[in-house]
Structures
1.
Amino acid sequence: MKLSSLTTGKSAVIIEFEKDDLHIKLMEMGCVPGETVKIEKIAPLGDPISIMVAGYNLSLRKTEADHIWVEEI
């Protein structure tokens, strides 16, 4: 499933990325395969999404979260 489809409070493990230029940027921000992420908040209109990853909060646009494939835990 895509990270953007998770709801607030859910956790997941990053499996892979869609291969494009964005995946390098995401990996530099701590979103690496095998890392656990938790959805902290979702803005009222659904964009941006605040996640907890690698011990810090990160805000992603929904279009960026669409590039991250995860497995819910």
2.
Amino acid sequence: MYERRTNEPPSIPPPPRGTIGSNRPPSDVRIGDFIYLAGAYQRVRDMRSAGTAAHRVLIFAGREPWIMREPRVTYRPIDFR
């Protein structure tokens, strides 16, 4: 009989349309980027420094601020200029 695997990582939904993913350090994150947090893609609305360029406090709409301390995959809207 077939047994379902329970140790598989949960699937991540596809990134937002019109974006391109890249592994960026906190110093390279921009307002408007998307970051996958708590099961959903959150768009950065504002941000401030958390002491150094290696740490950023990211502010989202409808979610508490989050401190980015290490490089992470972010999705940036594609610029068609």
